[in-house]
From TrEMBL:
CDD domains, alphabetized: Terpene_cyclase_plant_C1
Ranges where the Terpene synthase N-terminal domain occurs: 36-214
Designated name of the protein: Terpene synthase metal-binding domain
Gene Ontology biological process terms from the UniProt entry: diterpenoid biosynthetic process
Ranges of compositional bias, category Basic residues: 1-11
TM regions (residue ranges): none
Taxonomic lineage from the root: Eukaryota, Viridiplantae, Streptophyta, Embryophyta, Tracheophyta
UniProt-recorded Gene Ontology molecular function terms: magnesium ion binding; terpene synthase activity
Region: Disordered, residue numbers: 1-28
Length: 497
């Protein structure tokens, strides 16, 4: 996502068409060089992708598939699914998991309430686990299943149940008012448990899980990072299944090897674009951009999608830095116009650094358009072009605000900021790459879910950066608008989303 960090000014020559043009004062963010040099990335290797390991993974997958099909107890089935998800290997068993959860959901619909075997773990743990898994997989289940066991009268001794409820509460919707309130109650009790059991060895694993969840709930964590962490934790459990653990370790290394190869390819692409060489003011963050793509979808089957999404991230970052740091207002207005027209024939009107950026943008968007047309049969380029034009228009408005000294009110800032967050553009590209739906839905990306997501990210980013000294005036405006009280309110609001 665009991040404004311009901090000082310096003077350098413009990419002029004639040597007689005067020096132009331009800003610099003083971005640090990338920690991940291209040569280092190319040197990365992974020795785990060997034929005997591949055969072993195939055998382990067959064993786990057999477990999923033969496990009889409903609670045991749900726990197995949850473990597979946390270990990062559930993508191998999507059909089996869908079948199990569909059966669970059908039973709930028929009985109008949960019928889990409650004798083993207790009502709260089992019910919350089922609720979370069903919602994670898109099934409809109401908060009524908790039968009032989510209030102040929680049993402090049932930490496993309280933790399960805490995790489930983060999948609440706007109408789940009671479930939202439990975040406060469960958090309070979990913190007390952590404090009281500092030196309790018997509760070590559970305490570690609680601390981890309090730092950030499972629903909000990045899958690959969570899998790496949980593999270690799961290996320390007394009830650990060695088959699941071995599969998780081997699979993690296999997937990591795939990601390393993709990153090498992307690093080569990034170097060949020449953007960091000729636009030395932009952020050189190809590794960070790729990591963001892995956070969205890590599965091996999405290799092409990850690479295209990373390229989109890097182009957004580059263009954002042009508007935020380097370009003059005249250059930015011209660039915006040419992006709106998508007119390569006007390339010579741009300064050299913008020529390279615009041509790279056109080439990559055309490549995505070709991929979608070839595989899905419809042309998405007009919609992609429109999204880039809209985003550049909002970048231009913010540049005008800065250069004129204008300070927008909060409503005006957010009206522009949800688009300048780049979320609508990113989600549109993701939709085009992943969805098989027709063009009808692409006519407008001003859908409530897109706008809400963009607004949350915009505000969350501003909350994180408003205390930092920024050269961009709108951020000073936001800092003034976000009093401590408002900042606290927004922080609590995000916790319930």
């Amino acid at each position: 996502m665009p991040k404004r960090q311009a901090q000082r000014r310096f003077t350098r020559k413009t990419d002029s068409k004639t040597p007689s043009q005067p020096l132009v004062s331009r800003r610099s963010a003083n971005y640090q060089p990338s920690l991940w040099q291209h040569e280092y990335l190319l040197s990365l290797g992974n020795t785990y992708v060997k034929e005997d390991n591949v055969e072993r993974v195939t055998l382990l997958k067959q064993e786990v598939s057999k477990m999923l099909n033969e496990t009889e107890g409903l609670l045991e089935q749900l726990e197995l699914i949850d473990t597979l998800q946390r270990l990062g290997v559930s993508y191998h068993f999507e059909q089996e998991i869908k079948k199990t959860l569909t059966n669970v959901h059908v039973k709930n619909v028929r009985a109008h309430k949960n019928r889990i075997d409650r004798n083993r773990w207790g009502d709260l743990y089992a019910t919350a686990l089922e609720f979370r898994l069903l919602r994670q997989h898109g099934f409809s289940i109401a908060q009524d299943v908790f039968d009032g066991n989510i209030g102040v009268d929680l049993d402090d001794k049932d930490i496993k149940g309280i933790l399960s409820l805490y995790e489930a509460s983060y999948l609440s919707t706007r109408i789940d008012t009671k479930l939202k309130e439990t975040i406060y109650y469960t958090t309070k009790r979990l913190r007390k448990f952590v404090e009281v059991n500092k030196n309790e060895t018997k509760s070590y694993t559970l305490r570690r899980m609680v601390i981890h969840a309090l730092e950030m709930p499972y629903h909000r964590r990045v899958g690959r990072l969570e899998a790496r962490w949980y593999i270690e934790v799961y290996g320390e459990r007394h009830d650990m299944n060695p088959i699941l653990l071995e599969l998780a370790k081997l699979d993690f290394n296999f997937v990591q090897a795939i990601h390393q190869d993709e990153l090498k390819s992307l690093s080569s692409w990034w170097s060949k674009t020449g953007l960091t060489k000729h636009l030395d003011f932009v952020r050189d963050r190809i590794t960070e951009g790729y990591f963001s793509s892995v956070g969205v979808m890590y599965e091996p089957e999405f290799a092409y999608h990850r690479q295209m999404l990373t390229k989109v991230f890097m182009l957004i970052t580059t263009i954002d830095d042009i508007y935020d740091i380097y370009g003059t207002l005249e250059e930015l207005q011209l660039f915006t116009t040419i992006v709106e027209k998508w007119d390569v024939n006007r390339l010579e009107e741009l300064p050299n650094y913008m020529k390279l950026c615009f041509l790279c943008l056109v080439n990559e968007i055309n490549q995505i358009g070709y991929f979608v047309l070839r595989d899905k049969g419809f042309n998405v380029i007009p919609y992609l072009k429109e999204s880039w034009a809209d985003m550049c228009t909002t970048f231009l408005k913010e540049a005008k605000w800065y250069k004129s000294g204008y300070k927008p009110n909060f409503e005006e800032y957010m009206q522009n900021g949800w688009i300048s967050s780049s979320v609508p553009t990113i989600l549109l590209h993701l939709f085009c790459l992943l969805s098989d739906q027709t063009l009808d839905i692409l006519g407008s990306y001003n859908h409530s879910v897109v706008r809400s997501s963009a607004t949350i990210l915009r505000l969350a980013n501003d909350l994180a950066t408003s205390s930092v000294s920024h050269g961009f005036t709108t951020y000073n405006t936001v800092n003034n608008l976000l009093t401590d009280q408002r900042r606290l309110y927004l922080s609590k609001l995000f916790q319930t989303k």
